[in-house]
Amino acid sequence: MRRVRLLLGAAVLASVLAGVLAPVASTTGAATLSKIPPSAPCGAAGVAHYRHVVWIVLENVGYSIIGSTSAPYLNRLASSCGLATNDLAVAHPSLPNYIALTSGSVQGIVDDAEPSAHPLDVASLFSELGTNWRSLIESMPSRCDRVTSGQYAARHNPAVYYTNLSATCARNDVPLTLPLNLNAGFTLIVPNVCNDMHSCAVSVGDAWLRRIVSSIVASAAYQARSLALFITFDESDTTATNRVPTIVVAPSVPRGLRVGAALTHYSLLRSTETLLHAPLLGDARRARSMVALFHL
Q: Residue 205 and residue 69: Cα distance in Å, rounded?
């Protein structure tokens, strides 16, 4: 009888302890692994380890879009995530900025000519990463297409200018489709000339951005706190300052963060290379990193 009472007492104690401890463990797990909603993508609980970097590059509107009623979604992102308020593009027109962003130099380019006019056998972010990159280019007729047509602009697709990418370009430079494939270490997303805010209304591009960013935030990589998204513009307009907004969307970015440090397109390249453990190219070596500034 005494043995029975001892066994029953142990069972009761175990049951009590389980009832006390189980909610604590459950709550802690929920806090760490809680879903990040598209409406509040930044300032999320949990430790972040970034292994995926995504860029979205828009066109020619510049810093004047901050506060614009034509871009409510972009401004909501800027208010709820991180915003670089003193970021400068490095050239006019579009193409030299895309080349600078991905190689650390404008490579002497001063126009928007086709890849046939500017074959570049130089190191780039793409060549550094081997096969661990992807370009998702909206309205591109075929993979690694080197000819502008319809709403596709080759000048907005930097990978097609680098001749040393060989077969990698045909595999990794692909038309944009949904659902997004974000498995690569680095993904460049480029809208067509309507959705990039250049040839159509800003509101059209803003609606496109909402669809794409919501998809990114819902992705497995973002939910696992391993993906950082940078949204920027290739250039401002024709102004001398060439100031552009760059919005940083990542789980560890404090909500409403404003960074006034002097940055350039080379800062974005340096930050991406740092996060992906790649060597620094060209002027990225001298540029200020965004990693610590935005809590990445």
A: 13
Higher pLDDT, 25 or 150: 150
- Max intra-chain CA distance, the chain: 95
Are 252 and 295 in contact, with CB atoms under 8 Å apart?
A: yes
Q: What is the CATH number of the domain that holds 83?
A: 3.40.720.10
Residues 58-74: what's their mean pLDDT? 95
- 78-101: average pLDDT: 97
When divided into structural domains, the chain yields a total of 1
Domain coverage including residue 154:
47-285
Q: Which residue has the tokens 């997004």?
A: 180
Question: Is 71 inside any structural domain?
Answer: yes
Q: How far is CA 28 from CA 16, 31, 266, in A?
A: 19, 5, 40
Cβ-proximal residues to 281 (8 Å cutoff; 6+ apart), any chain? 103, 104, 105, 123, 124, 125, 128, 269, 273
How much is the average pLDDT of 2-18? 40
Whether 91 is in a domain gets the answer yes
3-state helix, strand, coil in the chain (%, to 5): 40, 15, 45
Report which secondary-structure segment, H or E, holds 258: strand 257-259
**Structure tokens belonging to residue 243:** 């100031």
Q: 113 in the Ramachandran plot: left (φ > 0), alpha (ψ -120 to 50) or beta?
A: beta
pLDDT band with cut points at 50, 70 and 90 for residue 60: confident
**Structure tokens belonging to residue 110:** 């001063």
Report angle CA 34, 38, 40 to the nearest 5 degrees: 70
